[in-house]
Each structure stands twice: as C-alpha cells, then as structure tokens.
C-alpha cells in the first residue's frame, strides 16, 4: 500500500485532522511509562508536514504528549519543537484517533519502549497490557 491521507478525529468530532502515512509500513509505539500506561496510549511520530489540522483546537499540551479535545478528552495530536532528545520538530499522533478500518489497525507495526525504567532502547519484560 502506498502513502495515503488518513483522517483522524476525536470522539465528539470537534477536532478533525489528516495525516499522510502508509498504514502498511508506519511504525507505531506503545510504552510502559506512567503517562502511556494510565492513558492506554498508542502513538506514532511523523513530520509536522505530514499532519494537517482541519477543525478544532486541542487543549494546550503538557510536556511532549498529544493534546486532548477540550470537549470529549480524547488524545489527538501535537507538534513538538526540537529538544535535547528530539533534534528535529515532529508531530505525535494518537493512533486511536485515526479513522482506520479495523483490519488496518491490526496490521500496524508496533514497537515497545520501556519508558517506566528509562530504558527506551529495550522492550519491557511484559507488553501484553500495553
């Protein structure tokens, strides 16, 4: 499958966006840090140019996390500036906010990070709950 424009939205529809991606080759991530675990977060990174906001304004972001819809609270997306761990700007997208068919969700590649122990290069010992 080639790169395509994938729509995304929050639950109430107040926030809509598009992201250019190839669902067959896109790399997504799940992490065991406190934020990701408590939010059941599943994310992906891309370039800011691949993200196109269409409607709505997510609430201000906290740290390097995606922003929430102020109406329904769903995590959506954020554009992150360069930082000490991230030399280039990037967009972070909540995979759950993408409007993909269930079979495409099932084929997304997932990389696991051990953020809870600050060993980002390792896969956590247990990933079944992520």
3D architecture notes:
The chain has 130 residues and is mainly β. Helix content is 9%, strand content 31%. It has one domain (4-113): Metal Binding Protein, Guanine Nucleotide Exchange Factor, Chain A (Beta Complex). It has helices at 34-39, 102-107; strands at residues 4-9, 16-21, 27-31, 43-46, 51-55, 77-80, 90-94, 109-113. The protein has a five-stranded mixed beta sheet, with no helix packed on it. The longest helix is centred in the N-terminal third of the chain and has 6 residues, at 34-39. The model has no long low-confidence stretch (mean pLDDT 88).
Record the SSE blueprint.
Elements: E1 4-9, E2 16-21, E3 27-31, H1 34-39, E4 43-46, E5 51-55, E6 77-80, E7 90-94, H2 102-107, E8 109-113
Parallel strand pairs: 3-8
Antiparallel strand pairs: 1-2, 2-5, 3-4, 4-7, 6-7
The gist of it:
It contains 2 helices and 8 strands; from the N terminus they run E-E-E-H-E-E-E-E-H-E. With 130 residues, the chain is mainly β.
Q: Would you state the CATH class?
A: Mainly Beta
Number of helices: 2
Distance between the termini: 27 Å
- Per the principal axes of the C-alpha atoms, what is the gross shape? globular
Number of strands: 8
Strand share of the residues? 25-35%
Return the domain count: 1
Question: Helix/strand-derived class?
Answer: mainly beta
Radius of gyration: 14 Å
The largest pleated sheet is described as:
5 strands, mixed
Architecture per CATH nomenclature, i.e. the level-2 architecture: Beta Complex
The low-confidence runs, each spanning 5 or more residues with pLDDT under 50, are none
Mean model confidence by pLDDT:
88
Question: Which H/E pattern describes the elements?
Answer: EEEHEEEEHE
Q: Classify the helix fraction into a percent range.
A: under 10%
């Amino acid at each position: 499958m080639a790169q395509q424009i994938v729509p995304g939205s929050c639950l109430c529809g107040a926030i809509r966006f598009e992201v250019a991606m190839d669902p067959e080759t896109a790399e997504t991530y799940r992490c065991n840090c406190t934020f990701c675990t408590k939010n059941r977060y599943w994310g992906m990174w891309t370039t800011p140019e691949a993200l196109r906001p269409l409607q709505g304004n997510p609430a201000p972001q906290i740290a390097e996390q995606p922003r929430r819809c102020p109406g329904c609270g769903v995590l959506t997306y954020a554009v992150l500036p360069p930082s000490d761990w991230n030399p280039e700007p990037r967009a972070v997208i909540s995979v759950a906010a993408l409007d993909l068919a269930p079979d495409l969700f099932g084929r997304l590649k997932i990389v696991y990070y051990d953020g809870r122990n600050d060993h980002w290069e390792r896969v956590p010992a247990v990933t079944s709950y992520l």
